[in-house]
Design goal:
single chain, 212 residues, alpha+beta, Cyclophilin, 8-stranded antiparallel β-sheet, 21% strand, disordered N terminus
Length: 212
């Protein structure tokens, strides 16, 4: 039980603020869309299904379209469990999102290997941090962790994300100091170069050719 409790805490969003603010998303995301993540370790693609987790899908789309995830570091990597990211490297940008919480979604899909889910610290507390399951983590389902998408390409890249620092990065310092802290203390973290909503198959092929 202690191990489960520790892992659940690892998925918590550390904000330093106690008053929740639930934000309504202004724009509805497409029912299904793909996001290409170009990282320092290779590329992977997420396919989002809005029917699985509507509020989560809308928020993820908004974050990607705004460029929020660009230059984000994978700051928590636990082999055999999950990889987590979603704190912007610029503290001023992060401050705009840290209390922009969204309402919970029902858990309609189990947290199986390759599915992506928002981190949460309690009821209606999702903001920008997400994680990808490295294995089937069904025990998270009853805790309200609602998957909104799945890795459809590049799971080998996700598996290879640098795990040497494990859970050492301090989320509080990541929030206040951003990439300045991470680059100095954990210089070889895998990071996102750019995250882009794939508009169509032609766009996806063009991006693949560009990355070669």
């Amino acid at each position: 039980m202690k191990t489960v409790a520790r892992l659940l805490f690892a998925l918590s969003v550390v904000t330093g603020f106690s008053t929740p603010i639930v934000a309504d998303e202004a724009e509805q995301a497409p029912e299904t869309y793909k996001v290409l993540f170009e990282t320092s370790g290779g590329d992977f693609t997420v396919e989002v299904h809005r029917e699985w987790s509507p509020n989560g899908a809308d928020r993820f789309h908004k974050l990607v379209e705004s460029g929020f995830y660009d230059e984000c570091r994978f700051f928590r990597v636990v082999p055999g469990f999950m990889v987590q990211w979603g704190i912007n490297g610029d503290p001023e940008i992060q401050q705009n999102w840290v209390d922009a919480k969204i309402k919970d979604d029902r858990v309609t899909k189990s947290n199986k290997r390759g599915l992506i889910t928002f981190a949460t610290s309690g009821k209606n507390s999702r903001t920008s941090q997400v994680f990808i399951n490295y294995k089937d983590n069904a025990f998270l389902d009853g805790q309200g962790f609602s998957p909104f998408g799945e890795i459809v390409e590049g799971m080998d890249v996700v598996d290879a994300i640098n795990s040497q620092y494990g859970e050492k990065p301090d989320q509080g310092l990541v929030q206040t100091k951003g990439n300045e802290y991470l680059n100095k203390s954990f210089p070889t973290l895998t990071y996102i170069k750019k995250a882009t909503v794939v508009k169509d198959e032609a766009d996806a092929k063009a991006k693949d050719e560009k990355s070669k």
